Amino acid sequence: MSPAAKSLILDLLSTLRPGAVMPVGVLVEAGGLFGLSDNNIRVSAARLLAAGQIARDERGCYRLGERAVPISRRVRSWRELDRRTRRWGGGWIGVEVVRSGRKDGRARGRALSLMGLAPLRESLWLRPDNLVGSVDAARAELGSLGLPDADLVFAVSNLDPSAERRARKLWNVEELRRSYRDLLADLAAGAERIAGLAVEDAMVVSFLLGGRALRQLLRDPLLPEEICPATERSRLLEAMRRYDRLGRLAWAELLKRWGVPYLTAPLDGRIESRRARLAS
Asked: Which of 40, 52, 62, 191 keeps 20 to 30 A from 6, CA to CA?
């Protein structure tokens, strides 16, 4: 299975609304834009289907499978990222990890990373307790993302002063803020570029940059204001919302042709004007 084809299939299916499906023809046509052959896409789809990562209905249309649901839920919720946090009271969410096999280790690493935890020491990972739902919600989310049942999730408070100072420095805040600024600039430049591209090129450009931005947002630790100012993250999120609409508009023609639900309200008239000129 081609990693590029696998990633493209899963990323495209992750954009679907709940209950929607995507014909294999969309996947094949989209694959062609990225230099992936018809056979490559179909073989990769068959293997993802066998692995339970995607599912197929009686018409041969695809959606994400049960194994991909937790990640898909997070992907679909990125627009409300700023609603996942609450005011920080100074406490922490802790995870005590138990040594386990390689498979559990990979699942644990992904879950801890997606939830923004960092290691205070090898067996103890922390994050600020500033998420909506606090420890109970974090425990459920970590479990759905693959944290082994043997690992303990609990509230942490009253760290000694030395441990508190170390905990607040577990994240490279300067690097995080720089990544916000860099990606914000890339999205602004990307939006300008898309407006002047042919539809097929706009599809590729928007998909690649939008995917990179989405991956960064999904792995954002959502740190409280006391550790990392939220202004730049908020600006990035708003820019990504606008860019996502531009990208979806670029893909609208292909999706409409195959009967897949798509964005219909344009955000930027320049894209519509460009498409009209190309069609004339």
From this structure: 191
